[in-house]
Automatic annotation (TrEMBL):
UniProt region (Disordered), positions on chain: 98-137
Protein name according to UniProt: Zinc finger CHC2-type domain-containing protein
Signal sequence region: none
GO MF annotation, one: zinc ion binding
Entry's Gene Ontology BP terms: DNA replication
Length: 431
C-alpha cells in the first residue's frame, strides 16, 4: 500500500505546485488590485511583511519573491502568506484534504486549518486597512500638490509681462508669438527649481523666471454648449534664461552627481490632460497635439495658424500616445528595436523592446472629443525614432474613428518643429 499512497501524495503535491502564483495569491484572499502590474510582474506591499514594493508575483515564471525573505512557487507563497506548513499549504491550494494516512489525526488537522484561516482573515483585514490608509495619504498628497500648483499659477504674471517673460522666451526660440493672446500661458517671475541633495532633502538649486502652462482635462458639463468643460489638473513649468542660446533655458545640474537636469517640470497630474496652446477646442474641428509647447507652436506656423484648429501639448510621449496593450506576448504589445541592444547582467546582448502599436484603451492619454474630425499627432525629429514612431502610430490607432482623419507627422531627423527653418517641408506620413 505504501507505493500507492506515495504516488497519491506525489500527485497531490504536484497539483498544488501547478497552481499559478496569481491564483494562489487570490486563493489566500488577497486581491491583485493591491499590486501594480507592469508586464508579467505584479509588485506591491507584502501582505505578510508589509513594505511598499518588496513583494512581487511573476505570472510568466509563476514565482513570487519577497525581498529579504524568500521566494518560490505557489506552495512557498501560501506558506509565506499564511504560516501554514507544506502539506497544509497544498491542501489550501487544492481545496481538498491530503491523501489520508492511516489513522491521521483529523481533529488536529482541522484545528491547524482553523488557526491558519484565522491568521489569513487577520492579514486580509490588515491589508485592507493599509490600502485605505495608503489611498488617503495619496489623495492628501495630490490635494496638497494641486493647491501648490494653483498658488503658483495665481502668483504668475501675464504671458507678456516684461523682458524675461514667457512671450520673450518663445520669441527668442524664433517662434511666431503674434497669435498668442496670453490666455493659456503665464510667466512666473521667480520660480524655485528644487532637486534632491545627497541626503534625499529637497533643496532649491535655482530661482528664475519660468513659463507656466496648465494641464487640463475635459470633464462632462451639462451646462456648457459642448457638453464639456476644462478642469485644470497640473502645471507645466519651463525655466527661462534669455542669455543661454540656443534653447534659452538655464543650465541646471544635480547637486548629487553634477549630471544635467531637465529645465522643464510637471507638477500635479498630467495623465489624460493637455496643455492648451492656441485656439478654442469647443469650436475647433481639427486638433494638433505635440509633446512640447515649442514643438506645437513651431508646427502651428507651418500650418498657417488655422482657425479651425486647436493646438495643444501633451507634455510627453506617454501622455501623447497612451500606453501599449500590456502582456508581452499579446500581439502589438511591444516591438523589437531593429538596432538597439542591451547588455544583460551576464554580459549577453539582449534585444531591446519598445512599447508596441496596439493601444491600451484603458490607459490615460490626451482627450480627443467626438466633434474633432481631423487629428494630427506631432513627432519630434530629435527623439528616438523607433519608439517615437511606434508611439505616434499607437496614438493614431487609439483615436481612429469613422469619419475622422488621423495622422502622425514627423519633423525632419535631428530637429524638432521649433528648430527647423520655415523653408523645410515636413515629412508627411499617413497613419
Ligand atoms: Zn513577505
Amino acid at each position: 500500500m505504501t507505493g500507492a499512497r506515495t504516488f497519491e501524495m506525489d500527485a497531490f503535491v504536484e497539483d498544488a505546485r501547478a497552481v499559478s502564483v496569481l491564483q494562489a495569491f487570490e486563493r489566500c484572499g488577497f486581491s491583485l488590485r493591491s499590486l501594480r502590474s507592469s508586464g508579467p510582474e505584479h509588485v506591491g506591499p507584502c501582505p505578510s511583511c508589509g513594505g511598499k514594493d518588496r513583494f512581487s508575483l511573476n505570472s510568466q515564471k509563476s514565482v513570487f519573491n519577497c525581498r529579504g525573505a524568500e521566494g518560490g512557487d505557489a506552495i512557498g507563497l501560501v506558506k509565506h502568506l499564511t504560516g501554514l506548513d507544506f502539506l497544509d499549504a497544498c491542501e489550501l491550494l487544492n481545496g481538498r484534504d491530503r491523501p489520508s494516512r492511516d489513522g491521521g489525526d483529523d481533529a488536529e488537522r482541522a484545528a491547524r486549518r482553523e488557526a491558519a484561516e484565522h491568521r489569513l482573515a487577520e492579514q486580509r483585514e490588515r491589508a485592507a486597512r493599509e490600502e485605505v490608509e495608503r489611498e488617503a495619504q495619496q489623495n492628501q498628497y495630490r490635494a496638497r500638490e494641486w493647491d501648490r500648483c494653483r498658488a503658483l499659477w495665481r502668483e504668475a504674471a501675464a504671458f507678456d509681462c516684461n523682458s524675461a517673460s514667457a512671450k520673450a522666451y518663445l520669441a527668442a526660440r524664433r517662434l511666431d508669438v503674434s497669435r498668442l493672446d496670453g490666455a493659456y500661458l503665464r510667466t512666473h517671475p521667480r520660480l524655485g527649481f528644487f532637486a534632491e541633495d545627497g541626503k534625499g532633502a529637497k533643496v532649491a538649486i535655482h530661482h528664475g523666471p519660468a513659463q507656466l502652462g496648465l494641464f487640463c482635462r475635459l470633464v462632462p458639463d451639462a451646462g456648457s454648449a459642448s457638453g464639456f468643460r476644462w478642469m485644470s489638473i497640473g502645471l507645466h513649468a519651463t525655466w527661462i534664461d534669455l542669455d543661454a542660446a540656443p534653447k534659452f533655458r538655464p543650465t541646471l545640474v544635480s547637486p548629487v552627481d553634477g549630471e544635467p537636469l531637465p529645465s522643464k517640470k510637471m507638477r500635479g497630474s498630467k495623465a489624460g490632460g493637455v496643455i492648451p496652446v492656441l485656439g478654442l477646442l469647443s469650436s475647433a474641428t481639427r486638433m494638433v497635439v505635440g509633446e512640447g509647447i515649442e514643438t506645437v507652436l513651431g508646427f502651428a506656423r507651418f500650418d498657417g495658424f488655422r482657425a479651425d484648429t486647436f493646438y495643444c501639448a501633451a507634455g510627453d510621449l506617454g501622455n501623447l500616445a497612451g500606453k501599449a496593450r500590456s502582456g508581452r506576448d499579446e500581439p502589438g504589445s511591444r516591438i523589437r528595436h531593429p538596432t538597439i541592444k542591451r547588455r544583460a547582467t551576464n554580459g549577453v546582448m539582449k534585444p531591446h523592446f519598445v512599447p508596441g502599436l496596439e493601444p491600451d484603451m484603458g490607459s490615460d492619454a490626451v482627450p480627443v472629443p467626438a466633434w474633432i474630425d481631423e487629428l494630427v499627432l506631432l513627432g519630434d525629429g530629435d527623439s528616438e525614432p523607433v519608439m517615437t514612431r511606434a508611439a505616434l502610430k499607437r496614438g493614431c490607432a487609439r483615436h481612429a474613428r469613422e469619419g475622422r482623419t488621423v495622422r502622425a507627422l514627423f519633423a525632419p531627423v535631428g530637429g524638432d518643429w521649433a528648430d527647423v527653418a520655415a523653408a523645410l517641408e515636413p515629412e508627411m506620413e499617413a497613419a
